[in-house]
Design a protein that fits this description.
rod-shaped, 0% strand
């Protein structure tokens, strides 16, 4: 198949008369093909640029969303930590019963589950 491609191309000549004859015979066709090819290249370039811009915007939005989720998660963990410390502080001096500890962990589990459901 590569032999067909090689034989399909005419050898380049430097004779101006032959070039003039080729231009007379094929000039319009070659010009039309070249114009269409240039239009296709321009269109591809424009589409690629538009896609690059869209990808950049999507990337920025994703990074912003990830940052917001990280901040929300950090804040919720801090809130849970403070609540737990507060509850332990309230229990200090009192020996908590197993029922109190169970209730505290149950409430903590509900909060965690509620937070997970809100983010889903």
């Amino acid at each position: 198949m590569s032999d067909n491609k090689k034989s399909a191309k005419p050898p380049k000549t430097s004779d101006p008369k032959i070039d003039a004859i080729k231009d007379i015979i094929f000039g319009d066709t070659i010009s039309e093909i070249q114009e269409e090819f240039d239009q296709v290249k321009t269109s591809i370039r424009e589409h690629r640029q538009a896609l690059d811009e869209q990808m950049s915007q999507v990337r920025q939005e994703l990074e912003k969303t990830i940052q917001q989720l990280q901040q929300e998660t950090t804040q919720k963990l801090q809130d849970i930590k403070e609540d737990t410390l507060q509850r332990f502080g309230q229990m200090e001096g009192n020996v908590p019963s197993n029922a109190d500890l169970g209730k505290m962990f149950e409430d903590l589990g509900k909060r965690l589950q509620k937070g997970r459901n809100e983010n889903s």
